[in-house]
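Quiz preparation item.
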């Protein structure tokens, strides 16, 4: 079921997506090694075609509770 859902959403092993992920990770690794801790970037910020990570309301509330 998961494989069928993946293929329907992303296509067959989507090579372009894999390249984008690899390059985004390398760019973030390089950038984060050159800057101070508060200026670091998340690799997902450098992947324009990648979907945002969906977080449920409960997960968001759990994160707020842990921080406080």
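Solution:
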């Amino acid at each position: 079921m998961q494989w069928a859902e993946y293929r329907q959403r992303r296509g067959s092993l989507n090579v372009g997506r894999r390249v984008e992920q690899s390059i985004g990770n390398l760019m973030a690794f390089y950038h984060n090694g050159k800057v101070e801790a508060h200026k670091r970037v998340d690799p997902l910020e450098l992947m324009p075609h990648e979907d945002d990570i969906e977080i449920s309301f409960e997960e968001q509330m759990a994160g707020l509770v842990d921080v406080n």
